[in-house]
């Protein structure tokens, strides 16, 4: 399988994922390919967002833009796609509304609305429906020429469920909360269905060439600790448990797996035991405390600068980098940390300020002579 791709020249992130001590911490950031880059808008042209995702040539071009702009500063790429391709594959209509974000014109309103049983019982052929993602991954691996490894990803079942019933982002999650407190069993049935599709989708991404995968639970923080244990944790665990054997069935090696339960600070200890190699931290975590929580477990932490610091001065960026380097105890540990932001890059960030962030990480973590 690996023979069709050029050999990897930078395996830093894979070595860290395996628990090895390394010369410096690897760096990538969520949404590193995207609208803050002027070249993104040029390549996107008049296409809508999902058209870009569905065109392997365009998706691969967008994936590579930050690797080319920040040459030698980044240690991973992540395929240009969206978490909502799974609800689309399940038969739901999703539109990307300019300046507003994703919108479902016909969300799931109750278990009796007809669409619920259709979605739940539909036989989804993830290989066929999301073929464009796998084509984009394979093409991107070839174009990367081994410069850095490539991440595949999916949305976590809980987060996808939120979008499917809410119809988009929300501040109060009225529909979502109505579902879990009125229809808990129907909610769990749909979460299980989504989980099974996630496993197959991630396995096919690895088959196509993804070298690591991340599960984004962007709305995990909307759950109370007890609700998280019912509606998020079991399904995150399901993916971690079932992906490696599914890869084995397909004749593929396991790949490092990242879980990112954004906002669910209370679940860090549980996240370390879910079966993932890497746990993503948002900016609400104190790095030193997170390292303490991990303890002796062979877990790598990823994160966790406040993305908002990129609107600040260079002095502020340096300070945040220093805090992370000290908090993750890099000088002593030299392992167990992948540098990232605590969430995706936000719009209107100056790409040069992000470059400065990367340069400061390199400057403040590199071992002399290596």
From TrEMBL:
The keyword Mitochondrion does not apply. It comes from the Eukaryota. Its EC number is 4.1.1.37. It catalyses: uroporphyrinogen I + 4 H(+) = coproporphyrinogen I + 4 CO2; uroporphyrinogen III + 4 H(+) = coproporphyrinogen III + 4 CO2. GO terms for molecular function: uroporphyrinogen decarboxylase activity. Its main location: cytoplasm. Residues 26-35, 151-167 form the Uroporphyrinogen decarboxylase (URO-D) domain. The keyword Signal does not apply. Gene3D superfamilies: 3.20.20.210. Coiled coil: none annotated. Keywords: Cytoplasm, Decarboxylase, Heme biosynthesis, Lyase, Porphyrin biosynthesis. One of its GO terms (cellular component) is cytosol. GO terms for biological process: heme biosynthetic process. InterPro entries: UROD/MetE-like_sf, Uroporphyrinogen_deCO2ase_HemE, Uroporphyrinogen_deCOase. Pathway: Porphyrin-containing compound metabolism; protoporphyrin-IX biosynthesis; coproporphyrinogen-III from 5-aminolevulinate: step 4/4. It is found in: Cytoplasm. Belongs to the uroporphyrinogen decarboxylase family. Catalyzes the sequential decarboxylation of four acetate groups of uroporphyrinogen-III (octacarboxyporphyrin) to yield coproporphyrinogen-III (tetracarboxyporphyrin) with the formation of intermediate hepta-, hexa- and penta-carboxylate porphyrinogens in the heme biosynthesis pathway. Acts on a number of porphyrinogens, but only coproporphyrinogen III can ultimately be converted to heme. This is Uroporphyrinogen decarboxylase. It comes from Corynascus novoguineensis.
């Amino acid at each position: 399988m690996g023979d069709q791709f050029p050999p990897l020249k930078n395996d830093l992130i894979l070595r860290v994922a395996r628990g090895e001590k390394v010369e410096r911490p690897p760096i990538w950031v969520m949404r590193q390919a995207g609208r803050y880059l002027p070249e993104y808008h040029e390549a996107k042209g008049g296409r809508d967002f999902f058209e870009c995702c569905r065109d392997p040539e365009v998706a691969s071009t967008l994936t590579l833009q930050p690797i080319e702009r920040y040459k030698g500063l980044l240690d991973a790429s992540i395929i240009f796609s969206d978490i909502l391709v799974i609800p689309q594959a399940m038969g739901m209509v999703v539109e990307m509304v300019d300046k507003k974000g994703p919108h479902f014109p016909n969300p799931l309103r109750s278990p009796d609305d007809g669409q619920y049983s259709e979605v739940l019982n539909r036989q989804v052929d993830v290989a066929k429906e999301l073929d464009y993602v796998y084509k984009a991954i394979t093409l991107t691996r070839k174009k990367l020429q081994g410069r850095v490894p490539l991440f595949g990803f999916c949305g976590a079942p809980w987060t996808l469920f939120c979008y499917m019933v809410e119809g988009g982002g929300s501040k109060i999650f009225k529909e979502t909360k109505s579902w879990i407190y009125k229809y808990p069993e129907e909610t769990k049935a749909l979460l299980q269905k989504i989980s099974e599709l996630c496993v197959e989708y991630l396995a096919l991404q690895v088959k196509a060439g993804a070298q690591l995968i991340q599960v984004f639970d962007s709305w995990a923080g909307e759950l109370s600790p007890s609700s998280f244990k019912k509606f998020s944790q079991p399904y995150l665990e399901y993916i971690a448990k079932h992906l490696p054997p599914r890869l084995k069935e397909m004749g593929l090696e396991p790949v490092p797996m990242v879980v990112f339960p954004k906002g669910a600070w209370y679940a860090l200890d549980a996240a370390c035991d879910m079966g993932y190699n890497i746990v993503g931290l948002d900016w609400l975590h104190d790095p030193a405390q997170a390292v303490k929580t991990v303890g002796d477990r062979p877990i790598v932490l990823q994160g966790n600068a406040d993305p908002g610091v990129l609107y600040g001065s260079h002095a502020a960026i340096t300070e945040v980098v220093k805090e992370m380097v000290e908090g993750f105890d890099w000088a002593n540990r030299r392992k167990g940390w992948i540098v990232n932001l605590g969430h995706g890059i936000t719009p209107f960030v100056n790409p040069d300020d992000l470059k400065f962030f990367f340069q400061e990480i390199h400057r403040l973590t590199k071992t002399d002579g290596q």
